[in-house]
Amino acid sequence: MTKNNSRSKLSIFALGGLDEIGKNMYVIRYGDDIVVIDSGLMFPEDEMLGIDVVIPDITYLLENRDKVRGILLTHGHEDHIGGLPYILRELNVPVYGTKLTMGLVEHKLREAHLLNKTKRVIINNRSEVKLGSIQATFFKVNHSIPDAVGICLETPEGRVVHTGDFKFDMTPVNGQAADMHRMAEIGKKGVLCLLSDSTNAERPGFTGSERNVGEALETVFRKAKQRVIVATFASNIHRIQQVVDAADLHKRKLAVVGRSMVNVVNIGMELGYLRVPPDLLIDPDDINRLPAHKVTVMSTGSQGEPMSALTRMAHGSHRKIEILPGDTVVLAATPIPGNEKTVARTVDQLFRVGANVVYSASQHGVHVSGHGSQEDLKLMLNLIKPKYFIPIHGEHRMQRAHSQLAETVGVRPEHIFICENGDVVEFSGGKARYGAKVQTGNVLIDGLGVGDVGNIVLRDRKLLSQDGILVVVVTLSKNNGKILSGPDIISRGFVYVRESEKLLDEANRIVTQTMEKCASERVSEWASLKTSIRDALSRFLYDKTRRRPMILPIIMEV
Amino acid sequence: MTKNNSRSKLSIFALGGLDEIGKNMYVIRYGDDIVVIDSGLMFPEDEMLGIDVVIPDITYLLENRDKVRGILLTHGHEDHIGGLPYILRELNVPVYGTKLTMGLVEHKLREAHLLNKTKRVIINNRSEVKLGSIQATFFKVNHSIPDAVGICLETPEGRVVHTGDFKFDMTPVNGQAADMHRMAEIGKKGVLCLLSDSTNAERPGFTGSERNVGEALETVFRKAKQRVIVATFASNIHRIQQVVDAADLHKRKLAVVGRSMVNVVNIGMELGYLRVPPDLLIDPDDINRLPAHKVTVMSTGSQGEPMSALTRMAHGSHRKIEILPGDTVVLAATPIPGNEKTVARTVDQLFRVGANVVYSASQHGVHVSGHGSQEDLKLMLNLIKPKYFIPIHGEHRMQRAHSQLAETVGVRPEHIFICENGDVVEFSGGKARYGAKVQTGNVLIDGLGVGDVGNIVLRDRKLLSQDGILVVVVTLSKNNGKILSGPDIISRGFVYVRESEKLLDEANRIVTQTMEKCASERVSEWASLKTSIRDALSRFLYDKTRRRPMILPIIMEV
Question: What are the two backbone dihedrals, phi and then psi, of residue A158, each rounded to the nearest 5 degrees?
């Protein structure tokens, strides 16, 4: 009985998604039942040199693998589903998501050879999923991808609501507004704790309707004299639909370029989320057979990604399409923080090749966010009326801003928990408090390696990137310790060798002197000898150049 | 006569500042007289790994050193004066600037041991400077540093106006508005060509007055219960003045921290640009002796620079001051493009240590730009009424936007020249056309090295930063080519060695096999042997890890 009692509390925490944008993974545990919400990835920060993607550390889940009842997905964005191929390989549990979300997941799992090994369940807003003592239902929300849901979890300790990523779009493109009636119903029944999206908590007002973008696009199409090229996020099927509609209205054909865009358009059409008139789509190869005013191109690259279709088109390095003077290019997106410069460079390059460029700074309305602003967030809080509140999905200052909004609509300050990943909020007898922290962290993925790059490797990459490396090689005699060959100094990323011969000659002399000195002092241990060389050379180079290249002494013995 | 004729044209071009933000350097040449406007530096782009600063390539000036009559400075920002210590070392010419600008320049030249070698002339809005056949006068403009001027050059071919960086501030903090009367006068006399600041050409409306920031600061001071810490650009003396005034009004003492901030405050007070009541300033060491509500701190770090005073205070690593719960911290700045993430991290950290953080997203009005928006730019164009127009100081899309503004106020499209650095616009007989391009480029400064780091070094640093390096060393016998020692493989920045022993063992085997194969095929040239090792190892590692570390084979012979 005691044992059961100690277990029967409700714990809520994140393995990813708090104090960061990306790798969302939230855990709700009651007794021996664990439910996971989302399994995202994060794109590397600037200082994570050479890293491809980052996923959450799931040690906690692996240590409790027999208790994990399933993974519920809120929607199909990479920061919510991108970690699945890595995580399911280690933790084979059922995955639940709406039709479009599962369509995107299946594509990923097929590539990772995990499709047949994974139990997959498609849910909708009428589904009830039993996960041990926890029961999940789902309600529609609006977001920049269709088929996004919020999740209501009934637990013996009380009701927990997770909004997923959301906004309230009063005039949604597909006619499916966020289900405020269901939210009101849930709120009326009483909610113990709300977890809600904080991305735009710093932004005043309501977030605009996706339909506004359609109107802005219509204006662009109407004015365009030659080809129209629209770049946007591949997953924003609502926006893709509006480009399709505008092309159709203006009697233009549409070519789709960029691997992820082609993929989403195919899945969207196959599953009925994208309505494309017959004969509208053309192959990119056929563009040049049509007059310019009959052509629309839809492309990836709205973030100025160097390898994207749009960037390659702008630089004339795309295999099939080149931007021509007079083309109208629309970047239907705003830069994600950190991408401002690459986007600006792409806009500059497009102007340079003669395009008429429409971008967020030049024309209002070609993008709206998928995340609710302050008024959306207050509306959610007022509908759900939670006793406790945990702002999720955002960096610290966004969680702060969201917590202030919650206070203004009446949540008691002491009932708000601003958490980091791994902070556990425990509920018992209707009361909440912090529990013991669980292990969290970034698992770095570089090529095929999952977790084999850590701080030491990153520190070395950082060092190498700043001032390069000097390798010092010398061969000694096993018999008498005399130098048989070298010292040879090879540098990479340090200086132009041709212009710095004198410097490197002097460096060579320093190494020889150091070795002679060590020999006369009878320093025979290689480690000390290497340290002496490294120190002497480092001092010399810093003095001459104010640089600190990595120095790698290698001593061979024959 | 013919020779003279061929010379007596007017040429205008930039050695830096076009299609970029930074390293401004414009050249006006008439016959044998060359006038340079500004000598700035640029902070390195992300891909310039390890580089400290970038200055313009001044080959053109060095090749024409006997013709350079002087360098005129518009104002004291780094992107306009920061290149001087490097450039004056190679080109000893007189430098002209206003009192504050020259105060800041002197500080730089003193550090570079160039102060006594350089002829320095202080100018004001009544100065007339004769530079060979070119005569310069100056007119006040408003900018985010006091004592900024535009320049009017009278040449035998016509009048050329360079705005410098500017906006029109109708209620300037120091009471000195941009001299519209002088601009009107110049415009009335007739201007051949205008060069005008394009930084904010994408931004609608007028740029706000610096005085608005003072009002916003006043509100912050009024509400603050404990210490107030304001971070802003060190050079913005107007803003510093307003912090001084607010501190004085609210009977708080003021401590200044951050090397560049202390420097500017000293120069500003010394030269009379900053009015500080006696006893207002206190030493940072004395802060803790005063009650919290009596303290203001003014600091660098508004861009979240990792080594700045504010960042160190936020992380508890500043020697003298630590942010305490309840402190109000104002970031009176918006992030410069590229700094969004570091600023956001600083705000997050300040919240984490319990500060009440006021930043651009949380409160409107704590920053205004120093550059004119679209209406300011049109006002300038309308006052100066140039025949020809060259949009300067901005990236390509800003130059484009500025050119569109010029068209709307009546400049003929064929009279607008959107140039890159090195594009020469030649004026002769009142007509303009493109001339032969001049050499331009980025000179990269890394430590003490000026220009000894170029594309090959940067490419190596980039490679090293992505997947690290593997050094393969082997010692061969001079006599029979047999392996005497090795192959040894040492890696840095590639994988955790401990977790990848098997991989590195296999790599070792691959090298041995390759060398044996080469030996059996009688490959004796080291270059081919090295290439074979590099290829085999690269293929193996890519196959196993999908990474491409730099591979450096080193063969020693004894």
Answer: 145, 180
Q: How far apart are the first and last CA of chain A?
A: 72
* Distance of alpha carbon B485 from alpha carbon B508, whole angstroms: 12
- Give the class (CATH, top level) of B468-557: alpha beta
**CB neighbours (10 Å) of residue B45?**
15
The 3-state DSSP class for residue A457 equals: helix
Closest chain B residue by Cα to residue A543: B448
Query: Domains of chain A: which residue ranges?
Result: 2-205+369-450, 210-358, 468-557
Which string of DSSP letters, residue by residue, matches B293-343?
A: GGEEEEES-TT--TTSHHHHHHTT--SS----TT-EEEE-S-PPTT-HHHH
Alpha-carbon separation of residue A511 from A176, A472, A531, A540 (angstroms)? 73, 8, 11, 10
Own/partner contacts of B349-354, CB < 8 Å, gap of 24 or more, are B349/A396, B349/B311, B349/B314, B349/B315, B350/B314, B350/B323, B351/A396, B351/A397, B351/A400, B352/A396, B353/B314, B353/B316, B353/B323, B353/B324, B353/B325, B354/B323, B354/B324, B354/B325, B354/B326, B354/B327
Coil vs helix vs strand at A257: strand
Reported ipTM: the value is 0.87
Instruction: Report the amino acid identity of residue B374.
Output: Q
CATH fold label, A2-205+369-450: Metallo-beta-lactamase; Chain A (3.60.15)
B250 appears as a binding residue in the annotation:
no
The topology (CATH level 3) of B210-358 is Rossmann fold (3.40.50)
Question: pLDDT (tens digit, 0 to 9) for every residue of chain B, 558 residues total?
Answer: 334 444 589 999 999 999 999 999 999 999 999 999 999 999 998 889 999 999 999 999 999 999 999 999 999 999 999 999 999 999 999 999 999 999 999 999 999 999 999 999 999 999 999 999 999 999 999 999 999 999 999 999 999 999 999 999 999 999 999 999 999 999 999 999 999 999 999 999 999 999 999 999 999 999 999 999 999 999 999 999 999 999 999 999 999 999 999 999 999 999 999 999 999 999 999 999 999 999 999 999 999 998 999 999 999 999 999 999 999 999 999 888 888 899 999 999 999 999 999 998 777 788 999 999 999 999 999 999 999 999 999 999 999 999 999 999 999 999 999 999 999 999 999 899 999 999 999 999 998 888 888 888 999 999 999 999 999 999 888 887 788 888 999 999 998 777 788 899 999 999 999 988 887 877 667 788 899 999 999 999 999 999 999 999 998 888
Taking the C-alpha atoms of residue A133 and residue B369, their distance in angstroms, rounded to an integer, is 57
Contact B496 A362 (CB under 8 A): no
Burial class (CB in 10 A: 0-12, 13-18, 19+), A409: middle
Estimate to the nearest angstrom the gap between the alpha carbon of B472 and the chain centroid: 41
> Nearest-CA neighbor of B260 among B295, B307, B213, B296?
B307
Whether residue B423 is annotated as binding a ligand: the answer is no
Only one residue has tokens 């414009």, namely: B26
Q: Which amino acid is at B215?
A: E
Interface of A with B in 203-232 (CB under 8 A): 203
pTM confidence score: 0.90
Cα distance between residue A487 and residue A553, in whole Å: 9
Q: Is B371 a residue of the active site?
A: yes
> Choosing from B197, B245, B376, B467, which is the catalytic residue?
B197
- State how far the Cα of A227 lies from the Cα of A212, in Å rounded to an integer: 22
Instruction: Tell me which of A20, A369, A374, A397 to substitute to probe the interface with B (most B C-beta atoms closer than 10 Å).
Output: A397
Distance, CA of B294 to CA of A158 (rounded, Å): 49
Alpha helix ranges (H) inside A137-236 = 180-189, 210-223
B554 interaction partners in chain A (CB closer than 8 Å): 471, 473, 488, 490, 554
Clarify whether A371 is annotated catalytic.
Answer: yes
User: Residue B77 is which amino acid?
Assistant: H
- Show residues of chain A in contact with B204, CB under 8 Å: none
